[in-house]
Amino acid sequence: MSRSHEPHQSFFPFRNPFRMLSPKGSHLSKKYLLQLNTFEETLAERLRKLNTKDKNDILSLSWMKSAMESLCNTHNDIKDLITELELPVSDWDEKWIDVYLDISVNLLDICIAFSSELSRLNQGNLLLQCVLHNLKSAPSNVFIRASSSLDSWRQHINSKNPRVENCCTILDKLVASLDLPKVKNSAKGKVLMRAMYGVKVQTVFICSVFAAAFSGSERKLFHVPVSEKYKWAQDFSDLQSNINGEIRNIFSSGGVKVLKELEVVETAAKKLYPMIQDGVDLVEVAEAFQNSVSDLGRGTEKLLQGLDLLSKEVDGFFQIVLTGRDALLGNLRSNGAVSETMLEGNVA
Fold this sequence. Notes:
Belongs to the ROH1 family. It is a single-pass membrane protein. InterPro entries: ROH1-like. It comes from Carpinus fangiana. This protein is an all-alpha fold. It has one domain (30-346). The chain has 11 helices and no strands. Helix 2 runs antiparallel to helix 7 (187-215). The chain is elongated, with a radius of gyration of 24 Å. It starts with 29 loop residues before the first helix and ends with a helix. 35% of the residues are buried.
């Protein structure tokens, strides 16, 4: 795995692995251009769909689910493109392979960090379920237990997840890998490098938004400038400006600390907390009390559903990265392209 003190490296910082794939001076054929155009146009369409005009969608679990689903589809597309290009793994440079495996490990680490945060938020829902269960009972002593559970939930939600906090370091490495290598003699290499750049840009952007959402800090956001020569460049720039700009506005105005669905639950909990803590006369505030309990119940259910759906998408992305990594290792072993010692040293 990369170490934070190592200098930034491009994705292909060493000898071009595609140098031997075609004669010197090769140009993109119509076939390769069609494959590249199809990939870039599909990516542009995905980016447009993520560029929501409804500000309430930003930092919501539903938008984040769509973003992760979009990212999964793009990573699947690059796998299909590699298959279509029929790039022989045996010609890849060992040092490039090492860098590629290192980047895949970084992506797996990010997935693990996001999954751990989603699991932590789900654990908080168990405390909310205890609150709601106790509030259905009549004896006053259950309000004491409900108040205690609500206190525990607030402390749990406001705690920091070290894995999410460390995402910035990992994202720094991925941003440093965005530089495109120079591919002079391989038409297939040119297609793959250009397509993989789009994959990496989308990956860095979405992962940085997730890190900001889970940490409640705009410092986790990254701004990635993209050349206009890419078909998806304008759509990405519009998406990045809209989402990052709105997140910064939300945080600067003291808005959402983490997720929109979680903010709804926190608001309901704040209204309910004084009623069960101070032992107010529930007869006098019966309607307000029931409304607050109902709001908390609905908010908790929506939060639970959203976390569950997003967790599945993050797990799916983890599997896509892992299977792609395993497939590369399998191909290398079957082709005898590199030593077993090198492969074993790179296994996560």
